Amino acid sequence: MINDEIRFTRILEDVKSSARMNGGFINEEEVKKAFEELDLSGEQFSMVFDYLRKNNIGIGEPLSESEQLDQDERNILEEYKNELSDLDIISESEREAFAIGAMAGEEEAKQKLLLYYLPKVVEISRLYSTQGVPVEDLIGEGNLALAEGLELIGALEKPEEIEGMLIKLVMDAMEESINEAEGVRRDGTKLADKVNEVADAARELAGEYGRKVTEEELADGTGLSLKKIREAVKLSGRKIEDIEYKDEEA
User: How far is CA 220 from CA 79, 144, 201, 234, in A?
Assistant: First the structure.
């Protein structure tokens, strides 16, 4: 059972990554083929499709901009597009020539490729919107990854490999940004839970005593460790109301 859960999670992440590399959508048949070894039920597939849509993955076709973005995000992307429209961006045919020059280390060619891929970073950011990171931050991370990637293309064997490498670096940077933000939120939740646990215990004990309680009394009366209480007090900025702090004592 545990192994099936691990395989399910891995396949789901692979499907999501594949869809994003494909422009933000995947066919229903491809999803079912990816999971065929697990023999999922119709209800389970419905849950998979719901999960993909919530992660901005279209089934059969890309989601519309209105489905992916709220109005503020659409306005931000429109501003980026307007700014980029004023740049001297090379054509697709020119890109091939500049790709060769960039691989040879020509700085002007790298700059031309940078400009060429900036609009693609904006488009990729749509795939990662509503994931807990502002779209402008996603674009910033993507642009940084793009610039760093252009310094690495000299190690490639063929110019045709450049686009796949750069797009993957941009997507990886955006995913890492989202994962970091999620980690911060989880840590913040854990810290808040720690403070709330101590605050609730202090409130209950203070009600029994008819007064504020000291950290030591709270530890003796609740079984919470003094270390945990003091950590919560520190995290709260000594704002737990039902604890009497030493400088408050008469």
Answer: 60, 53, 12, 19
